[in-house]
Amino acid sequence: HRRPDQEAGCLQESNSLTLRPPAQSWARSALVRLSFIYAALFGLSTVAALFGVYVFAAAQLENQTRGLIGADVAWAEDTSQFVGVAILKDAVTRRSHANAFDGAFYLMVDKTGAKLAGSLDRWPARAPKTVRPEIFPLAVSDTRTIEAMGATVTLKDDDKILVVRSLEAVHDTLMAAMRYAFAGVLLIVLVG
């Protein structure tokens, strides 16, 4: 024999079970699935756009580096022709000290290969042989090699000047900019 409050509970339970629609998990909801698809497409398009910007910016920075090396080559040729090798040697020393932290390297050697001036200790094995800028590996210490772009200027008395720019510094700057751009996009997504 049941008490009246137990019977009411059974009725309520059975009524509530029959009146409720079947339970759906949140992952089966069309709105949630559509939101995930939208977020995935937005994320994919953002990554693709940032990759495109990176490739374009890297090409532009490489062209700018070629221009800087070209300007240094013209400077070295003009200086040696009009004021002489002794003044050029002093100028290379000054430039080496002034540009010590921005990824620019210089090396002036005589015709025997002895160092006259510059920030590099020795002539790199795979250094470019012409004034046309080329990419090559540059050993900046016994344990560290970087990707660099450089050109060689051969002076009238067979002295040489190697003008180098670190591409690692260029790529580091670009990656830092890309991290800020990605953070900005992420902030817009989260806040907006």
Describe the structure.
It is a single chain. Helices cover 56% and strands 17% of the residues. With 192 residues, it is an alpha+beta fold. A 5-stranded antiparallel beta sheet has the order 2-1-5-4-3. The chain is elongated. The two termini are 62 Å apart.
Quick summary:
This protein has four helices and five strands.
Describe the secondary-structure layout.
Layout: H1 4-19, H2 30-82, H3 85-98, E1 104-109, E2 115-118, E3 134-139, E4 145-154, E5 160-166, H4 167-191
Antiparallel strand pairs: 1-2, 1-5, 3-4, 4-5
Helix pairs in contact: 2-3, 2-4
Please report the distance between the alpha carbons of the first and last residues: 62 Å
Largest sheet entry: 5 strands, antiparallel
User: Taking Cα atoms only, what radius of gyration do you get, to the nearest Å?
Assistant: 33 Å
- Going by helix content, strand content and strand pairing, the class is alpha+beta
| Overall pLDDT level | 82
Tell me the number of helical segments per DSSP (H or I, 4 or more residues long): 4
Q: What kind of oligomer do you see?
A: single chain
| Element pattern in H and E | HHHEEEEEH
Overview features:
56% helix; 4 helices; elongated; 17% strand; alpha+beta; 5 strands
